[in-house]
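Subject — a protein and its fold
Fields — amino acid sequence, structure tokens
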Amino acid sequence: MEQNSMLKRYLIIGLIISITSILGGCVKDFTMVGEFHFVNTTNYSITYQKGLEEFNVAPNSTTIFKNQARISKKKSQENNYNTPLANFNNIKISFNKVKCLIDIKEEDLNSVRNIKNYKAERVNDVTYKFTYTFTEADYSRAVNCP
């Protein structure tokens, strides 16, 4: 009888250890947030082609786009992020629909598709603010729209 009671104790202890291990082994996911600020310092309306209108920026104003992703760490890092435009091909940006930046590639000079061209600021452990600024230099690089 005492052996049976001792066996029950070991089984209960083993069960507690197993449950603790299972629950302790679960990885909690965190949501990382990227706040992308598109700042237009020019006097021209910046517009994208159909399907990307949410990134349009009025003259001398800012458009903010928030992007969320799941991560397994409690603290996000700047290099965990991609721009919201990184996965789009054949991007065309027009200035007042007169001058255009056509087929913007990620590796292009001052590309809005490359996260390295954004100013990054940590807001908190899981949020970064990224700022891309359109300037007169962008307008100067643009060609007449087709």
Notes: The chain has one domain: 30-144. The radius of gyration is 25 Å. The first strand starts at residue 30 and ends at 40. The helical segments are 2-25, 136-141.
